[in-house]
Amino acid sequence: MQIPNGKYIxxxxxxxxxxxxxxxxxxxxxxxxxxxxxxKHDAAAIFLLGDLFDFWFEYKTxxxxxxxxxxxxxxxxxxAGIPIYFFVGNHDLWMDDYFETExxxxxxxxxxxxxFNNKTFLIGHGDGLGPGDKGxxxxxxxFTNPFSKWLFRWLHPDLGVRLxxxxxxxxxxISGDEDAKFLGEDNEWLVQYCKRKLESKHYDFFVFGHxxxxxxxxxxxxxxxxxxxxxxxxxxxxxxxxxxxxxxELDPKS
Length: 254
Known about the structure:
Layout: E1 8-12, H1 22-39, E2 43-48, H2 68-79, E3 84-87, H3 98-103, E4 107-108, E5 112-116, E6 119-123, H4 134-144, H5 146-153, H6 157-169, H7 189-198, E7 205-208, E8 214-218, E9 224-228, E10 236-240, E11 245-249
Helix pairs in contact: 1-2
């Protein structure tokens, strides 16, 4: 993609809509929808890098209740011709084809390469990448197993969604102390993942979410890693103008 003059590519991650309750989540959702509305005039594309919802599961004919403001705004932007790309996170990993069929938004379950104005990107949510965290990686294999999804689908939505929402809110990724500070390049596993990828191929930018902490790390002379932060504590997002990638913070008055 070549970005037209005066246009930008925007990146957002980790909204966790619905957490810890629908009522407490609503002000954050309204801020997110207002932000989407504010960028529609100059957005060449929008990337949503996972955990948009604190829990999401698609039954064959049912999706979780709520989030109509967000879904309606995404539909409006897509209908206006703005490309939107969605990467599932660890909280909405049970997303199937609802976004694709209802909103015409492609859904990705793994990191994907993109090129904008001859700048190469590797983009994804970030969970389960890099060394360590073997417990989570084993758990993710169980949760994404088709048999596990089949078993869960047999629960009535009122029971299944309520149980999953309870477990999701308890997840340490929402408020864990380990997400409150930069751990150093040697201990940031996404930094290590990016450095390993650079051993076999050049990327100008790595952009991920999941970590809940805004970060900009210079990997070498020509490559940078960015983590987008979240819409719980930081209200940060990414903006690319064709040459430069920046982390931006939502105006607190918004």
